[in-house]
Amino acid sequence: MFTTVALTLAAVATAEYKNELDFSFESGSHVINAVPSIKSSDLPTTYDLREKGLLTSDLNQHIPVYCGSCWAHSAFSSIGDRLKIQSNGTKRDVIPSIQALINCGHAGTCNGGNSGSANKYVYKNGIPDVTCQQYQAKNMECSDINYCMNCDHDPEVGCSEVKEYPIIKVTEYGQVRGDDNIMAEIYARGPVSAYINAECIEDYSGGINQYDTCNTRTTNHAIQLNGWGVDTDGTEYWIGRNSWGTYWGEHGFFRIVRGGAWDVKSAEWAVPSFDY
After folding, report:
1. Comparing 24-38, 183-197, 236-250, 256-270, which segment has the lowest mean pLDDT?
2. 211 in helix, strand or coil?
3. 67, 70, 200, 214: which is the annotated catalytic residue?
4. Which residues pair with 169 in a beta bridge?
5. Is pLDDT of 6 > 50?
6. Catalytic-residue membership of 70
7. E strands within the chain?
8. Which of 43, 114, 130, 194 is the Cys-Cys partner for 25 at CB 3.0 to 4.6 Å?
């Protein structure tokens, strides 16, 4: 299925924080249904998918070793969540394999990548779930065994490729721009990927981040947006999910000012499908 390729990679870094984004990987779009047409006045003041029990497991991109795969985590946590939303939580969680994407997806590596390119790869090729290839947080060659594998109890037999396995697909993908349109997309179809300067949230431990301690023109990190709300003092905020473990932030999530210093500008979305 795959031609083994050697990966020659160079780390990309900003002065203070490793840049986990690489937009040299082409993303594009394939749109069948445009952004859902929902008037801003028809959107709820608060929308939190955590309260609905419609989000999949939290992830951590930095173990067992540091890997700059935020772009893949934000895209694939969103795809997994959207599958759960489609069934209203009646089907089991399906988590796409981030390691298979790193190995063979041509959308990025542990040195950075593009969430839109991740969606594009799944649209064109499909992707196995995490039971085919567990996250190892490293760049590996692309091969059949590094896409879907099984290991025998006999150490002399070892591990081998699996040739038939369930595939997660994407029927359409694209970008959505503007706060109202992003909110409509989340409300209608589920979480999206967005880009941010990680320096401003690196030490976040709770509350509403004002995004005022970093260069707001810099983007070096991908996160998931999955909701919004209004604080008691009237401050509007986004609800985001990071991929730094549940010991970071508000159990892996964070709130960040909406309509303030952080301008989302554009978010990546995909519509997934899976035969359970």
Report:
1. 24-38
2. coil
3. 70
4. 273
5. no
6. yes
7. 47-48, 108-109, 112-113, 149-151, 159-161, 169-177, 192-196, 208-209, 221-230, 236-241, 253-257, 266-273
8. 114
